[in-house]
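User: For my dataset I need records formatted as: sequence, then structure tokens, nothing else. Please produce one.
Assistant:
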Amino acid sequence: MSQTTLPGLALCNNAMLRRATRKLGQFYDDVLAPSGLKATQQGLLYQIHVGNEPTMGAIAAALVMDLSALGHTLKPLIRDGYVETFADPADRRIRRVRLTPQGRTKLEEALKLWQVAQQRFEEMFGKEQAASLRAALDEIAALDFDAPPAAT
């Protein structure tokens, strides 16, 4: 445990994960800053790109977000012309998302910077440890947590 970790944090999985997430998020944000994107925005652009015009619901499920949070995150990307939403041709009630040509260009720019951040993290943490970390985090994200009953 580092000297900056408060003793109470070390006992809580959630607190330690959030602490590490903030630290790593700040690092990726700093590296991506020249692109004008935050790491969350770059990740969202990438998911849209690989999702082949995914539905809003599919993106939200993949990123473990609710639709309102996804909409909030998409707003600046739509405003800046990187993303557009459109009705599914087969079912107009379903909204799909795609990158615009400007969004594809922005994603290419951001991915070059992301590569720098990814490589730096793996140099510091270890390539195998980073792969193990991603696998463990994916397993955690796949767990189906049931909220415990409220204490009485």
